[in-house]
Amino acid sequence: MLIITAISKMVMCINYYGLTQLRVYTTWFMIVLFFMFAVIAVRRFKKFNAARVMLLGFVVFFLILSYGNVDGRIAAYNIDRYRNGTLETLDVQALSGLSDAAVPYIYALYQDTPDQSLKADLKAAINKTNKYEAGASHQETFRDFNFQSQNAKLIRNML
Asked: What crossing angle do the helices spanning 103-112 and 116-126 adopt, rounded to 10°?
């Protein structure tokens, strides 16, 4: 019951303020804990290999978290809610703290918004400095390539 209460409070917070990385990771962890406790509760009444189920469940939840494009989903969710009017203000500073996966969504809002102040803030968020830019001595190799950063680099060059 405590986990369900905590998840409901987190959902209320997300509905009012929008998503952040911390809210996503905290909610993910609470869902994993709920799954673990549910397996333990079912194990009390029915005999099965609970360790295997918990390990498999954790692996599935971790893969969803790892390959779920969390930063892109956060940006898309917050921007969609801002456009629909269900989110009063858009926290552009929080969007600029996301990875390159958020850049296409920020750029789409940048193109659509008539508000020049918001447009300037969004442009600054898109042009945030990467960890390997601005004088950092890093030789880029094929291992450093990913499609999200390449797409973000193309968008930054268009600006």
From this structure: 160
Tell me if 63 sits within 8 A of 28, measured CB to CB: no
Hey, where are the domains in the chain? 2-67, 70-158
pLDDT on residue 145: 79
Instruction: Kindly state the tokens that stand for 7.
Output: 């998840």
Question: Rounded CA gap, 140 and 144, in Å?
Answer: 6
Q: In sequence order, which residues have a C-beta less than 8 Å from that of residue 62 and are 6 or more positions away?
A: none
Cα(7)–Cα(26) distance, integer angstroms: 9
Task: Tell me the pTM.
Answer: 0.83
pLDDT digits (tens, 9 = 90+) for 61-76: 999 999 999 999 999 9
Best CA proximity match to 97, nearest among 117, 78, 79, 75: 75
Rg from Cα positions in the chain: 20
Whether 81 contacts 17, CB under 8 Å = no
Residue 142 or residue 127, greater confidence: 127
Please name the amino acid found at residue 21.
Q
